[in-house]
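CORE FACILITY INTAKE
Project code: CF-77B
Contact: R.S. (postdoc)
Sample description: multi-component assembly, two entities in total
Requested service: structural model of the whole complex
Turnaround: standard
Below are the sequence entries exactly as provided by the requester. Do not edit them.
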Amino acid sequence: MGRYVIGRLLLMIPTLLGVAILTFVLMRVVPGDVVELRYSQSGSVSQDVIDRERHLLGLDRPLQEQFVVWMGQVVRLDFGTSLWTDRPVTEEIGARIGITIELALIAALIATLLAIPLGVVAAVNQDRWPDYAIRVFSIGGLAFPSFWLGVLMILGLVVWFHWAPPLIFIPLWKDPVQNLAQLIWPALAVGYRYSAVATRMTRSSVLEVLREDYVRTARAKGVRELFVVSRHALRNSLLPVVTVISLEFAFLFGGLVVTEQVFNVNGLGKLLVDAVAHRDYALVQAIVLIFSFVFVFVNFIVDLLYGVLDPRIRYA
Amino acid sequence: MTEQAHPAIAHDAEEVARRRWLEDTTARRWRRGAADFIRQRPLGTAGAAVILLMIFAAAFAPVIAPYDPYEQHFTGIPLPPSGEHLLGTDAFGRDMFSRILFGARTALLVGFVSSIVGSTLGLIFGVVGAYFGGKVDEAIQRVMDVLISFPLIVLAIAVVAALGPSVGNVIAAITIPVIPRVARVTRSSGLAVVRMPYIEAARSVGVQAPRIMALHIAPNVFAPYLIMLTAFLGQAILLEATLSFLGLGVVEPDPAWGNMLRGQGMQFLDQAPWLAIAPGAAISLAVFGFNLFGDSLRDALDPRLRTA
């Protein structure tokens, strides 16, 4: 197991390096560099000033040299300065990442709490009305864009409760109730899709296990149906469900990019969209890199979880 | 065990199906396939109906639309739905129904072009990797691994950030994340095909590699290719709407469902909710239709992937 973990970790290095190269190159494809962008508003500046600035930022050096320098900084978690606010990128991200993580965790919790019971109920009642109702509910979750769901939620809240999206974010440690009241709606909007995917997986996985011989044996020896489902079927059908829930967790960060925009939540996703709008490439680069690294790490952890949850899987 | 038919009967049914297949012409096969699909998969047929309706609306948008989607009538405030304006107007006095119809054009254009181009490029990379194996395959795989390590929307945003927002760049931004996902699937199907004796036979009589890949391998991985393509159609439309909603896709004044929701839909949410409801409903219906059709097509083409 230990050797497997180390092997997998080493395999991740070329992928992460590739991700970094691609991110770096993408942000260098942009016509005009940082210096030009910075001076584009301030009218005419002499070529001399531009050249000096470029030299200062190291932009006149060969691309591969720039990349190495940049990587060296990234490894030390130094992403440079934001071109838009002039504050260190690390600081900008640090101020926002907490909200995004909290939102993701609440959404994941909602999705799991919804998906497992719904999936089991649908499977146990296969092809009867609860199954159809749950299937329609989950197909809807895949079709409704989370941002539209968010808009509809705000509409409902505004019309019925005269609620308005809050302008100031209240951190968890200051007032947990207020904090949750703020985050519950965006979490629901993004959690619905998430739960839809997990519900479908739970349903089909439980259905598969219910056909196994040991389930029939349990029924034959008179085990109550409730126990057959909870002890025999559910337990053995959880592996693919856990996989989907953790894989979707990585996708969740993508969904949050949009939901944060709708609900005006000042998280990492909103920061990314704002950074693109302000053409703040240093910031875009850093956030894209963070999202992708999280994605790669989550996939890695899912692989390891597999072995922990299912002893039949051995690592050679 | 009751579900399993008697082996002899199963064999006969197989034989009948095989004979029918051999006797049929291509046109008849397609017709029969479509008839079977409609009979056996009502949900998929409903999805196909939604898609056809959307294609019809997009193709005949200039004929159906009661107003020019760009034409402004200065009323100052958005008008609610009425007999004159089926879905009301926005604050510029533009007819929402006409804009929704023309928005279908944008959605379908981006959806079809990016998923077809992305899937086809994926197919090419997958088949080339499977056929040549070795270093070529390894190199392709590593690049695909990197591309697949970006969350879909994040990669799309990064591409738009680099290229700037426009219809063409949105198509590129959605195409790129599709490629590695299709390449993976077609490669693994292709690996099984490459080991077939008829590939060796083709090679031994001197057929050139590109011809083998195009005529002997690609047609045999067509089913997974088609499944992925239809799956990505709905995704691509959703992604276009998302990018446009974020202001990183199709921008005003061009009509796209996402940007209609973004600007005035959000701004006049409490006074003119129809501005937000109509485009969102259009996106949902379109994605719903493509998902239903895609799911059923997958079940029909690949029984092993069936989700119970």
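Facility notes:
- The mean pLDDT of chain B is 82.
- Residues 96-132 of chain B form the longest helix (37 residues).
Invoice: internal transfer
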